[in-house]
């Protein structure tokens, strides 16, 4: 997949937003995932409310309003070249990860946001995906091995990138449930279908089961 030119990047920011704050976000393909609190998002004449553990996708410029209790948001954005980070005045924005992603401007893509939940001691056996994306752990702990790199222990707030090409093996905490939220750019043809491909196809029936909550599965334009 892709042209071989790393013109595009995925960026993940954590926004800690003050009560009653407001800001404008420029036109970008983005997903907002609510960790805490609630937001109102106005795009043109359309308004949406995003509650805790919900995701929202948009590509147009939008106005964001924060409720009385403030909010914590994971903001995933697909950028090309350099794009300002932005944020709500008076809030705190942290870039958790920005990573190049190989995309072909002539191809058709979708932006998918979902949450993956492991039971204690859950295992994701070696697998690949149909596209790249950023994951952010929100609960538990996960030992992740991506390709030839050493295993990495990821704790809540930790983020990592998977291109989809190298095999990934993951082992969840033995003591508590583990969850992460991911946003991936995938071929549009697999809309509504899983992106996972096991290194050993028999592993699809093995391992500890995981559950998936899909928030966004939306076609996007990237050119």
Rounded to an integer in angstroms, the radius of gyration calculated over CA atoms is 17 Å
* Count of distinct strands: 17
Residue fraction in strands = over 45%
Helix-strand sequence = EEEEEEEEEEEEEEEEE
Average pLDDT, rounded to a whole number, is 92
Helix amount: under 10%
Number of helices: 0
SS-based class: mainly beta
Separation of termini? 15 Å
Sheet with the most strands?
Answer: 7 strands, antiparallel
Shape: globular
Q: Residue ranges: pLDDT <50 for 5 or more in a row?
A: 1-5
Keywords:
223 residues; mainly beta; seven-stranded antiparallel beta sheet; 0% helix; 59% strand
Structure description:
The chain has strands at residues 8-17, 22-25, 29-43, 46-50, 55-58, 62-80, 92-101, 109-118, 123-129, 133-139, 142-146, 152-154, 159-162, 168-172, 178-187, 196-198, 210-220. With 223 residues, the protein is mainly β. Strands 1, 2, 3, 4, 5, 6 and 7 form a seven-stranded antiparallel sheet that branches. The protein has a five-stranded antiparallel sheet with strand order 13-10-15-8-17, with no helix packed on it. Strand 11 and strand 12 (152-154) form a beta hairpin. Mean pLDDT is 92; it is low at 1-5.
């Amino acid at each position: 997949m892709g042209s071989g030119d790393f013109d595009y990047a995925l960026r993940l920011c954590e926004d800690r937003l003050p009560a009653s704050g407001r800001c404008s976000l420029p036109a970008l393909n983005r997903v907002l995932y609510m960790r805490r609190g609630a937001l109102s998002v106005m795009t043109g004449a359309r308004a949406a409310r995003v509650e805790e553990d919900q995701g929202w996708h948009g590509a147009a410029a939008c106005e964001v309003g924060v409720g009385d209790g403030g909010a914590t948001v994971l903001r995933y954005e697909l950028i090309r070249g350099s794009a300002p980070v932005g944020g709500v005045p008076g809030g705190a924005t942290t870039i958790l990860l920005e990573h190049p992603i190989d995309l072909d401007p002539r191809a058709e893509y979708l932006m998918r946001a979902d949450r993956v939940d492991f039971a204690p001691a859950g295992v994701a056996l070696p697998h690949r995906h149909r596209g790249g994306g950023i994951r952010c752990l929100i609960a538990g702990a996960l030992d992740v091995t991506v390709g030839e790199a050493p295993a990495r222990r990821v704790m809540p707030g930790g983020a990592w990138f998977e291109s989809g090409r190298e095999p990934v093996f993951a082992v969840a905490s033995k003591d508590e449930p583990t969850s992460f939220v991911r946003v991936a750019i995938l071929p549009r043809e697999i809309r509504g279908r899983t992106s996972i491909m096991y290194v050993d196809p028999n592993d699809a029936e093995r391992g500890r089961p995981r559950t998936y909550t899909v928030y966004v599965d939306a076609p996007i334009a990237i050119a």
